[in-house]
Amino acid sequence: MELSTIWFWIIAFMFIGYFVLDGFDFGVGMSLPFLGKDDVDRRVLINTIGPVWDLNETWLIVAGAMLFAAFPEWYATMFSGFYLPLLLILLALIARGVSFEYRHQRPGSEWKKWFDGMIVVGSAVPALLWGVAFANVVRGVPLDADFNYIGTFFDLLNPYALLGGVTTLMLFFTHGVVFVSLKTVGDIRLRARKLAVRSGLVTIVVAASFLVWTTFAYGTLASAIFAAVAAVTLIASFFANLRGMERSAFALMAVTIGLAVLTLFASLFPDVMPASNDVANSLTIENASSTPYTLMVMTWTAVIAAPVILFYQGFTYWVFRKRIGRSHIEDHELAPEVAVH
Length: 341
Description:
Elements: H1 3-30, H2 32-35, H3 39-49, H4 53-70, H5 72-81, H6 83-102, H7 109-139, H8 159-183, H9 187-218, H10 221-242, H11 246-268, E1 271-273, E2 283-284, H12 285-288, H13 292-319, H14 326-330
Antiparallel strand pairs: 1-2
Helix pairs in contact: 1-4, 1-7, 1-8, 1-11, 4-5, 4-13, 6-7, 7-8, 7-11, 8-9, 8-11, 9-10, 9-11, 10-11
């Protein structure tokens, strides 16, 4: 297998890691209006991801850096053609991060209300637009002979892409609510479990529709297999949550999201950016990749650095593995909410 092909799947792995980890961050943020009855509840929700949210976002930074180095043509075409959606994602992530750090700086309810709203919007916008972006990549976009995007912003808002956006939105929301049930105690844990059951039903319908559309319109045998297994694990996660098996439900949701990403990448292969107007203008693994020497240097760097990074992140989750509840907030009213990691 050539290094360019290996790096195509490494990029897929990085986006799997990002969507699984930052996905439940988005879900927790979006759950504030549904599970946060008062400020203490909202502080509990925010503190479930307080020690890890910024660590989870580094997967996106690394994925973008790897994409730039391994497939510069793909990076250039996607980031120029999808400039506005990606800018909105960036602004939403900034607003969410600022809100985490500043909502506790003043005691006023109006102050916190504004930042809570920014957390919700800053979580929902990326959750929606990432699905829109990747669905358009799979569907194909109009490109000229120099691999420049020649469509408009509204061309990206087609029915298939919007369904992809709703799919990631619902997957991340349910993933986050299940995470809340896994990380909390008391009434909020029970309410999160009930909410995950309701949102899980919607997620199953939406995700199944998107995966079926992907398989029949753009899929391959490999993507069909990934999609089928993803459907099974999503349904299994629903029933695990229904039975109160929170760890199993969360793990199965993570597997579902990972398989959904693999479905999209398998549908792409061997292209990286299909041209919807002329197949000859499509970006492929071969014509979009860097030189073999660059890929070789990147491979050795990844072999050395990846185990260290994965160990560090795993250790972080182990340190902050305990559940939290209202009593932890009420007993430490002077403690910062998420500023100290």
